Amino acid sequence: MAATPINVYVGTGQMPFADHGGKRSGIFGELMQELCVRMDVECQFRSVPWKRVQLEVDADPHGIALNLARTPAREEDFVWLLEVLPTCYVLNSPQARFDTFEQALDAGPVAVMAGTPRALELEAVRQGEQRVVEVTDPELAARMLRSGRVVAWYEIDSRSRYLWHRLGYDDEPLLAGATQGRVHSYIAASRQLEGAENLRTRMREAFAAMIADGTWQRILSGYFSEEKTREVLPAQQMAGEALSR
């Protein structure tokens, strides 16, 4: 009997990390496609709004989520299959460098992805008439920032820079303030996923092989600058060596 396919849930508009149905599938999308081939596993990619990803995966005994930050609040809700990328969060603005939430909120509305820990962080410090604008698509946040509808945008540094460039906004520098937080992004599975431990082992072995043969570097260099790729790779190369032992 053939193995049950894995349902891979992709939050829409999550470039450069993941997307589905467009010209490019993102870093996590390309990675997962390669992993499925190397593990000889049938994967069915399903595009859903970002706010529904966690709910869909939780309800699906064959579900996997791409690009999910591992946080204390989520720790017990998922099986963390594979650590992929470190991510840092910053306040972006073409007007000034905001190093604190208070500075940004005092200056005007701040955009952030709805349903994320980042939105909760901003709401926790918001006072009075200060505004936090929650969006469901990071591209919308970039457009709002460019048009002046918000003064800052709280987002993953590499995502905000990728979108700023892709939308053709390079004529106006995007200034990033101090790093507000750093987490690690994973491919994660439903707690109900049968054979999760075995899948995790196979996925880690396949990823280690991708690091060793240069496939992972090729994927990264298609989305990140040469400098950013060099920044990410050393730690992963060491992790890959550990995974392959």
Q: How many helices in DSSP terms?
A: 9
Strand content: 15-25%
Quaternary structure classification: single chain
Care to count the β-strands? 9
Give a nutshell description of this structure.
The chain has 245 residues and is of the alpha/beta class.
What does this structure look like?
The chain is of the alpha/beta class. It is built from nine helices and nine strands. Strands 1, 2, 3, 4, 5, 6, 7, 8 and 9 form a nine-stranded mixed β-sheet that branches. Helix 1 (26-39) crosses helix 7 and helix 7 crosses helix 9 (226-244). The longest helix has 19 residues, at 226-244. It is globular. Mean pLDDT is 89; it is low at 240-244.
Walk me through the topology:
Layout: E1 6-11, H1 26-39, E2 43-48, H2 50-59, E3 63-69, E4 78-93, H3 101-107, E5 110-113, H4 117-125, E6 132-135, H5 138-147, E7 152-156, H6 157-166, E8 175-176, E9 181-190, H7 196-213, H8 215-221, H9 226-244
Parallel strand pairs: 1-2, 1-3, 5-6, 5-7
Antiparallel strand pairs: 3-9, 4-7, 4-8, 4-9
Helix pairs in contact: 1-7, 7-9
Looking at this protein, list some descriptive labels.
disordered C terminus, alpha/beta, 245 residues, globular, nine-stranded mixed beta sheet
